[in-house]
Amino acid sequence: MYRARSVFKWLTCVTTLIIVLATTCESSLQEDEEKLGRDYAAEIEKRVKLVSGEQAERVARIGKDLAEIARNIEVPARYGSSEVSKFNYEFKVIEDKDVNAFSLPGGRIYVNSGLLDLITSDDELAGVLAHEIAHAAHHHMIALLRKQSNVDKYVALVAIAGILSNMRGRDLNNILMGAQMIRIGKLNTYTQEAEKDADRTAVAYMVRSKYNPEGLLSFMRKLEEKHQENPTLPLGIYQTHPAPYRRVAFIAQAMQEEGIKVNMREMTDMACARSVPADDEGNAYRVVINKKVIFEPAPLNSGVSSKDRSDQIAKRINEALDAKITSRDIRSDPTGTALLARDTEIIRIEPEDAPNPDAARALLHKARAALEYAIWADWLCNRCTNPQEPKPKE
Questions:
Q1: CB–CB of 393/340 below 8 Å?
Q2: Residue 18: is its pLDDT beyond 70?
Q3: Is residue 244, in this structure, part of any structural domain at all?
Q4: pTM of the model
């Protein structure tokens, strides 16, 4: 019973603290937000090594260009607040191999040297910085603190109710576990909404700057490729963000909303057929979709090269995807040597491709499976970029 009273007392204190935090966040003015950022920054800089010199100067120069836009232009927020604050934005580089960047309240922004190692253009760096500036400009940290306080109050109250009802330890643990899972799920949703808003706002800032918004897309695609090549690559905060291909799709949608023409399938690379060399000599070519091999056509005895065949197949696949085919539209012809989409031939297996009918059927089966994947990916990208996605309920 003494232990129950102790836990009750602790949870009551925690609940009170959370309520105070929530109230403070709701009444925060710009000065309070800046002070919170300074306090966080002081603690962070005790534990990290800051980088000076050319790298830091480049980050500060590009960051200040974009920060000036954020200080003077209101972009409607889909998460947080659209209220424009004249923050004195600061940009610093941390010596750390993790691919990471983060923003503190009040406009203090940090970029890891590991992220800068992946950057190959000012446009890519501008994309990252615009994203972090958007977090500060739309007051995402304050909004997240407020949401977290509401969720934590729920967890604390569940625990208090269990103690007051003299609930057995095992039952109380089960309830607390369920409450904690709800907490994690809700906060993850809030974080993803903040990321989407930051990506969308970053595009809005970039179209008003001298930097190309495609730099943000380029960096996200590069991050996905690097991670596929080396799954152990430290991704820092990006491990908890929405999947890169989803972010690429959402960013491309944001660019379209800003009047920038974007080929969604090509930009996302999830459902765009390409003809690429299959060997160092460049004699053999293959058709790929997001690194998944659809078909590798052989050169024909009639003189048609592997490249010509590959180019034509990629063109036909993209035309079929543009026509919004579904998996039910894909079938083999009666001979089992051609793949059709709504009765239009996409791929034909020639004698030069396969030594016998069984090998031809195997190639066609592989091509069909890969094409069905592309159709699914195309649908997924379109669904993920729906601008009318509902906001999470508070």
A1: no
A2: no
A3: no
A4: 0.58
pLDDT band at residue 385, thresholds of 50, 70 and 90?
very low
Closest Cα to residue 331, out of 344, 340, 318, 320?
340
CA distance 270 to 249: 9
Domain that holds residue 138: 23-143+187-223
The two three-digit tokens of residue 278, written as one number: 């299959």
- Quick: pLDDT tens for 301-344: 999 999 999 999 999 988 888 787 888 899 998 888 899 998 89
Put the strands of the sheet holding 50-51 in their side by side order.
50-51, 90-94, 108-112, 101-104
CA distance 388 to 394: 18
Contact 222, 216 (CB under 8 A): no
- How many domains, in total, are found in the chain? 2
Locate tokens 């090549």: which residue? 229
Q: What is the pLDDT of residues 345-376, one digit of tens each?
A: 999 999 999 989 889 989 998 888 888 877 77
- Is residue 321 a part of any domain in this protein? yes
How would you classify the pairing of strands 90-94 and 108-112?
A: parallel
Does 193 lie in the same domain as 96? Answer: yes
Least Cα distance to 361 among 335, 333, 336 occurs for 336
Bridge partners for 109 per DSSP: 91, 103
pLDDT classification of 79: cutoffs 50, 70, 90? confident
Q: Which of these, 223, 221, 227, 229, lies nearest to 251 by C-alpha position?
A: 221
Q: 169-207 and 244-257 helices cross at what angle (nearest 10)?
A: 40
Distances (CA, A) of 253 to 193, 204, 279: 15, 12, 35
State whether 57 and 115 are in the same domain.
yes
Query: And the tokens for 71?
Result: 């200080």
CA distance 235 to 178: 29
